[in-house]
Amino acid sequence: MRLPVLALLAASLCAGQAAEEGKPASSNIMNAEYPKVYADLSAAFRLKAPDAQKVQVDIMAKKYDMAMGADGVWTVKIPPQVAGFHYYQLWVDGVSVPDPGSDTFFGVGRQFSGIEIPEAGVDYDAVKNAPHGQVRNFRYYSKTVAAWRRAFVYTPPDYDTNLKVRYPVLYLQHGGGEDETGWPKQGRADLILDNLIAEKKAVPMIIVMDKGYAMKPGEQPPQPPGPGRPFRFVFTTFEDVVINDLIPTIDSTFRTLADREHRAMAGLSMGGMQTFQITMAHLDKFAYIGGFSGSGGIGPGGPFDAKTAYNGVLADPAAFNKKVKLVWIGIGTEEPEMMYKGVHAFHDALTQAGIKHVYWESPGTAHEWLTWRRDLHEFAPLLFR
């Protein structure tokens, strides 16, 4: 299903670049020649491992065997890939290792290598000659979990010069298996906002990117699924952290507009589910809500009932529509079937219930960072208008 989109992207890549020329991926470490990305979106990998017996590249749920040359260097060129950011790993004699030529990224619960496959004709997440904001490493103490926590906070380009200005805040969450580094690193949230603000398409705002996991002292983590035990998402402690610790600390530390009309929350996948759980329970604190590949329609529990969900806050659509300025739902057209159907069913349920919302699909992308970068690019311009 991806091939038409892939062909279109490959055909429109820089016309002057020959297919055999390849360029180091932008995700490589400094001065690393490999991995390379080619004009047709194929990629080449290289690893020096003269004592290894078998080396493979594992990317997009497929393994490719590498061939060793006389110099002990293993190489492989893999077929064209879908544009966007992809986690990958190397297997050396059955052991999973990161690629020494790639930067590493936290995903799926561990550090992975990653490769950027460029999207043709798109620069909304590129570094441009425009004013740039800052991403600050922000540590705060949470009384809820009795521990120090870290969030990353994006401040817009004029934050340190317009000292009399206060800013609205977007709380932006990562997905399952990722952490607070996801949006500033894999998601390029700062560059997306820099460019939107420079083009006057988005209101200057602060973005808070926290870790979506939290446990109180002595609290046990949720049990994984097993026989007779379905998977359950338990976010109540993180909800307490956001409401009782994070928001008050952000408002007391940064120049925020500290009211619900200037506060939004959004997240991808697990972070989208967290967003709906937290915002729907605290509509006194949030007026803008966004779910990227994750929403109230995802997960077990039977059909979604708008009249009873979230303690009935959707039961009176007129009152809800008056209070909440934006509900935004995004999904990739190539998402896993259960994910796509769940989000689309939530969209249908809200429509039937008379809840105003925006539903948007990312063409040709799956459960991946290109979908979520596009989501943020579409969502942010609608905030705080």
Keywords, separated by commas or semicolons:
alpha+beta, Immunoglobulin-like, Rossmann fold, eight-stranded mixed beta sheet, six-stranded antiparallel beta sheet, 19 strands, disordered N terminus
Describe it.
- The chain has 385 residues and is of the alpha+beta class.
- The protein has helices at residues 3-11, 182-185, 189-198, 236-253, 270-281, 317-323, 337-353, 369-379, and strands at residues 23-24, 36-37, 43-48, 55-59, 62-65, 67-68, 73-78, 84-92, 95-97, 104-107, 110-117, 134-142, 147-155, 169-173, 206-210, 263-268, 288-292, 326-332, 358-362.
- The strands form 3 sheets. An 8-stranded mixed β-sheet has the order 12-13-15-14-16-17-18-19, with helices on both faces. Strands 4, 5, 8, 9, 10 and 11 form a 6-stranded antiparallel β-sheet that branches.
- The longest helix has 18 residues, at 236-253.
- It is globular, with a radius of gyration of 22 Å.
- Mean pLDDT is 91; it is low at 1-19.
Write the layout of secondary structure elements.
Blueprint: H1 3-11, E1 23-24, E2 36-37, E3 43-48, E4 55-59, E5 62-65, E6 67-68, E7 73-78, E8 84-92, E9 95-97, E10 104-107, E11 110-117, E12 134-142, E13 147-155, E14 169-173, H2 182-185, H3 189-198, E15 206-210, H4 236-253, E16 263-268, H5 270-281, E17 288-292, H6 317-323, E18 326-332, H7 337-353, E19 358-362, H8 369-379
Parallel strand pairs: 14-15, 14-16, 16-17, 17-18, 18-19
Antiparallel strand pairs: 1-2, 2-3, 3-7, 4-5, 4-8, 6-7, 8-9, 8-11, 10-11, 12-13, 13-15
SS field, number of helical segments: 8
- What's the SSE pattern? HEEEEEEEEEEEEEEHHEHEHEHEHEH
From the N-terminal CA to the C-terminal CA, the straight-line distance is: 37 Å
Instruction: Calculate the mean pLDDT score and round it.
Output: 91
**Any idea how many domains?**
2
For the record, what is the CATH homologous superfamily label of the largest domain? Alpha/Beta hydrolase fold, catalytic domain
What's the arrangement of strands in the largest beta sheet? Answer: 12-13-15-14-16-17-18-19
| Uncertain ranges | 1-19
Helix content, binned percent = 10-25%
